[in-house]
Specification:
single chain, 181 residues, Double Stranded RNA Binding Domain, four-stranded mixed β-sheet, 33% helix
Length: 181
Amino acid sequence: MGKTTSRTEHFRKPAYPRHDRLTLFLILVALLATSACGFKLRGQVEIPPELNPLYIESSQGSAVREAIVQQLQGSRVRLAATRQDARVILRIGKEAYSSRVIAVDRDGKALASELYYRVSFDAVSGDGRQLVPQQTIDVVRSYENPDVEVLGKQSEAELIYAEIFSDAAGRILDRLRAILS
């Protein structure tokens, strides 16, 4: 005996069920909203073309310098290899780190800590003319210290500091762009 098919089997359900279309619509709305609010992907940091290339002067191993270089990757901002090749010199000054306990339990164990980072910077033209006056940026983050091993707490602090450096780098670039534009 052969298999019989009814007419209803020939009609398939739509490729996208109703809840999938709603999800797709919500994603599109979110993308449109983020593009309208000024959100930019990494590599979208720009300064006027006549101020390219940029040289970053900092102490050896500066974490905020590395974060700035990372944020400039993929942008039209060119980095100069030497100070003499640059039209703008971003000078990263003193960097300071600290932490403090902000909450303890009744046994004196730290429950929450605060990480603090301060960096100063300015910018001069290739001929030494002041373009951006000396400024300071402070970034503070607090985090809870769950009762875990010391290595876990150190890893969490390192991740938070990486976020702090990235935030400070973004703020420096925003100020640089605002003043130089």
